[in-house]
Amino acid sequence: MSGGPAVRISIESSCEKQVQEVALDGTETYVPPLSMSQNLAKLAQRIDFSQGSDSEEDVEGEPKDREWGKQDGEEEEGTVKFQPSLWPWDSVRNNLRSALTEMCVLYDVLSVVKEKKYMALDPVSQDPAAGKTPQVFQLISKKKSLATAAMILQKGAEKLSKSVAENQENRRQRDFNSELLRLRSQWKLRKVGDKILGDLSYRSAGSLFPHHGTFEVIKNTDIDLDKKIPEDYCPLDVQIPSDLEGSAYIKVSIQKQAPDIGDLGTVSLFRQQQKNKAGMPWHVKLEAAQNVLLCKEIFAQLSREAVQIKSQIPHIVVKNQIISHVSHTYISLSISLCHSTGEKKNNRASPEKPKPDDHLYVLEHNLHQMMREFHKQQLSSVVMPHPSSAPFGHKRLRLAGPLAYDKAEISSWQQTEGLLEKIIKQAKHIFLRSRTARTIDSLASRIEDPQIQAHWSNINDVYESSVKVLITSQGYEQICKSIQLQLNIGVEQIRVVHRDGRVVMLSHQEQELQDFLLSQMSQHQVHAVQQLAKVMGWHVLSFSNHVGLGPVESIGNASAVTVASPNGEYAISVRNGPESGCKVLVQFPRSQIKELPKSDVIQDAKWSHLRGPYKEVHWSKMEGRNFVYKMELLMAALTPCP
Amino acid sequence: MGVTCVCQVPVAEGKSVQQTVDMLHKKLEQLGAVKQGSFCVDCETYHATGNSSSQPSKLLYVMHNSETPLSCLALFEGGPCLIADANFDVLMVKLKSHFQNAKGHKVESRGSRYRYCDFLIKVGTVTMSSSARGISVEVEYCPCVVPGDCWNLMKEFMQSFLGPSVPELPSVFAAKPEGLFAPADCVDTMTQYLELFNKLRKLQIPGSNVR
């Protein structure tokens, strides 16, 4: 078959009639032989065009029959050649060969069809049962395929949305974890079972308050995904104990009159309502709760001390208020714990009228500070590391031996003052200080001549503060500065240090200070005259701070000075008392007096140099804005012109 | 902790130790000093054992002072000194093999403590194995820590009640470098006490004066 044109294919079949049926009488009916084209069509129907190489036998059914012997030979040859299969290009050769065969067949068919003598091409008629699909079936199948496609799409979309949600969930989870990390960095947390508990208490800072102070960390992730997430949304929430909710503070105030015990009770002092919303971030919540805890601890400590401490007037503890009397005064110190849970807003707001703020913020602050100091003291007693050989106890107690601390030093550690005692002392001091300031101010505003100046020091101890009081006359500040007082205001006493170092102790009574200042002011006037005399060239004849003669003053003593004019003709005598006021007398020379009482003894002219009688000056009628100015005018008037 | 001077006061002629002490108390009270409790200084002696035989055994003195109640001082004879806490006594028991307690060498000075303004005066009778050996007077000037600055004041004060038997500047202070700020501390006090004790220990018992 290698030579193309040499191959001839005959497509004529031997026509032998087939017996269709044999009748009972023996006659055979034959199937009428197929016509040429019918035969071809039938044959062609059997060809499956989709199958390439395998169907070549069907196509070449006729030639095979015809050239049987030849094909056999070839097959023999093929199998012989095929069997060793050692030749590497064997499959290629075979394929090439089969391709050539097909090409040849195609060529033959085409040439036969071209001649049109033997064969004509007819369209292949489809088998109606196999080829035609009914429309209903088509519709169903279309529907089915569409449904499949839709299902695939839907699955994809579902997967996508799931992954988005998962992402979000993951992010929230991550947010929760990062929030938890932040919480962990600031608060003590521990895990108990499947809960996360935190510690609000100051125990680790040295507190001995028995409140457990635990809070629970809640994962707040079950938020509705569809709704918009609020701005202040936080995946972490904390649950604080109900008794630590809200806000609290310690109120310290000084009350002038002792309140009726019947009136005592819960002090409700919340004037501004704090916003208590659930959406507070956790750190705000925790800080507020911790503050409540500290306030409670302070109050508990104070009330414990109030009960324990014996004092002349016992301290009263009623509900959330401690009242302690500041000794031998009519004032009392009230310390109250104000705790609002923010729930009972309505009935709280109405009855309280806005009152003047009587908080002692300094004391409130000090209370907190002292509590923390107390904590620290507790903590430092067990400070680590600790030498194994040393006894347990405070570090300084441990060091006391090797550093050879003496008795006084050691005993100074032992005395411990309670919180309440300290705060009462501070309150006393504050009260004394404010009262001193008030006394000085009222004196300064009431008395214009001489003037009082008070210079308060800015830096004070909690138990001591100082003020410098200057008594001056207006316009003569430079020459009249004899009275400078340093008032050291302590807890119960005022220590007055004069400029010259004299020390006077005054009690807490307001009147004492006032009297003292009044006497100082009256002395100041006399001092001022003395100073002025020096400046004016007058001579001081006598000077006394405390005159023993004349009317008795109810407060202090009167002081007096006598000064003589430069030429000795005139003399001015001033007596100034804190109560009686000033009295100024001028002594004239005897020569100037007309109606001298005639005496038998002093007839001689030389006696005219004797000093004459005193005459009182109507001081209130003198011109001048203050005492020293008046005195200056008087002195000027009595000094003869040169 | 101020500058401290410890001195020995001779027993007055024809008086017992106790009578002399009472006399001193009276003088101080007349001066205006206020009695403030009592004091006690004690000293125990330890022999260092286990050293090589060629070296003479050193003495270790362990002293307590009621003024520094939590401390314990250990002074080597002419050597370094150590301030420790009260546990040191327990440690010494453990160190028995190295330091042997010389029994019967325990010296004590007990007496009253007086305060006169800034001065702290301690008059004590020195007893050694329950026999009174002499009188010690300790004067402390609390506000100052530099001996050179306040010695004259202290001397003058001591003259007012001790009369002529006023000591010279204690040698511990004299040995300190001049002009430098060399604060006095408890070791100086204890060194002076130790010197006093050693002096009294060597002293023959003046039979008549011992009660």
From TrEMBL, chain A:
Entry keyword set: Activator, Nucleus, Transcription, Transcription regulation
Main location class: nucleus
Pfam families: Med17
Compositionally biased region (Basic and acidic residues): 61-72
Gene Ontology terms, MF aspect: transcription coregulator activity
Record GO biological process: regulation of transcription by RNA polymerase II
Top-rank taxon: Eukaryota
Nuclease is among the record's keywords: no
Gene Ontology, cellular component aspect: core mediator complex; mediator complex
Membrane-spanning parts: none
Role played: Component of the Mediator complex, a coactivator involved in the regulated transcription of nearly all RNA polymerase II-dependent genes. Mediator functions as a bridge to convey information from gene-specific regulatory proteins to the basal RNA polymerase II transcription machinery. Mediator is recruited to promoters by direct interactions with regulatory proteins and serves as a scaffold for the assembly of a functional preinitiation complex with RNA polymerase II and the general transcription factors.
Subunit structure: Component of the Mediator complex.
Protein name, entry field: Mediator of RNA polymerase II transcription subunit 17
Organism: Oreochromis niloticus (Nile tilapia)
TrEMBL record, chain B:
Gene from which this protein is expressed: MED20
Keywords for this protein: Activator, Nucleus, Transcription, Transcription regulation
Assembly information from the UniProt record: Component of the Mediator complex.
Gene Ontology annotations of biological process type: regulation of transcription by RNA polymerase II
Classification via InterPro entries: Mediator_Med20
Family note: Belongs to the Mediator complex subunit 20 family.
Taxon lineage: Eukaryota, Metazoa, Chordata, Craniata, Vertebrata
Function comment: Component of the Mediator complex, a coactivator involved in the regulated transcription of nearly all RNA polymerase II-dependent genes. Mediator functions as a bridge to convey information from gene-specific regulatory proteins to the basal RNA polymerase II transcription machinery. Mediator is recruited to promoters by direct interactions with regulatory proteins and serves as a scaffold for the assembly of a functional preinitiation complex with RNA polymerase II and the general transcription factors.
Pfam families assigned to the protein according to its UniProt record, in alphabetical order: Med20 (PF08612)
This protein's GO CC annotations: mediator complex
Localization (cell): Nucleus
GO molecular function (one): transcription coactivator activity
UniProt-recorded name of the protein: Mediator of RNA polymerase II transcription subunit 20
